[in-house]
Design a protein that fits this description.
Distance between the termini of chain B: 66 Å
Largest interface: A-B, 48 and 53 residues
Order of helices and strands of chain A: HHH
Number of helices of chain A: 3
Oligomer: heterodimer
Helix content of chain B: over 70%
Shape of chain A: elongated
Largest sheet of chain B: none
Number of strands of chain A: 0
Family (chain B): Belongs to the CPA3 antiporters (TC 2.A.63) subunit G family.
Number of strands of chain B: 0
Pfam families (chain B): PhaG_MnhG_YufB (PF03334)
Order of helices and strands of chain B: HHHH
GO molecular function, one term (chain B): sodium:proton antiporter activity
Shape of chain B: elongated
Main location (chain B): membrane
Strand content of chain A: under 5%
Radius of gyration of chain B: 19 Å
Structural class of chain A: mainly alpha
Number of domains of chain A: 1
InterPro entries (chain B): PhaG_MnhG_YufB (IPR005133)
Largest sheet of chain A: none
Number of domains of chain B: 1
Number of helices of chain B: 4
Helix content of chain A: over 70%
Amino acid sequence: MFDILLLICLCLIAVSILACIYRIIKGTSMPDRVIALDTIGINLIAAIAIFSVLLHTRAFFEVILLIGILSFVGTIAFARFIERGVVIERKRDQ
Amino acid sequence: MNASVISEVIAGVFILIGTLFILFSSFGIIRLPDVYTRSHAATKSTTLGVLCTLLGAFLYFWITDGYISIRLLLGIFFVFLTAPVAGHLICRAAYVTNVEIVRDTAKQRPKAEREH
């Protein structure tokens, strides 16, 4: 019963990831696509948490932290690129 | 009721609530009209859904195994801290690069436009 509930939750998260993929393909502007990618990263965190409960293992908890950090860094880099044209700026005195 | 049934009920309720929040935010991502309303849907309710799901997993491992996972707590804290910041930066980038606003809110543009 509990396993069936967890599988249903995984299917619902897969549906929401498909919705984000629709927004990435059709998105009318560049920040739309970045928001959808960030949402996919956060949905993957939830999916990994449910999957580790389903398998009853503790081995995937580092993956949750890693995907959180990598999704944040990627989103910040894309935001800086859209806003200023570069990701890492040069020093002012050169 | 033994401990495993209790833990399954509590974790199941939290995980189901979190998954429903994530599903509703994906409906918002599809249906809302412009970037700012979409980021409103994507940032807030997805963050709440992920927090509920991670809390359900944390309580499940706490009740069944007696295992308090610091990594899951750090994951909750980090998602709670960084998701609004990422949404803010993306929305500011969209505003600076003149992505169009839906027509009803375009009358009230922020003050930063007048200074430039």
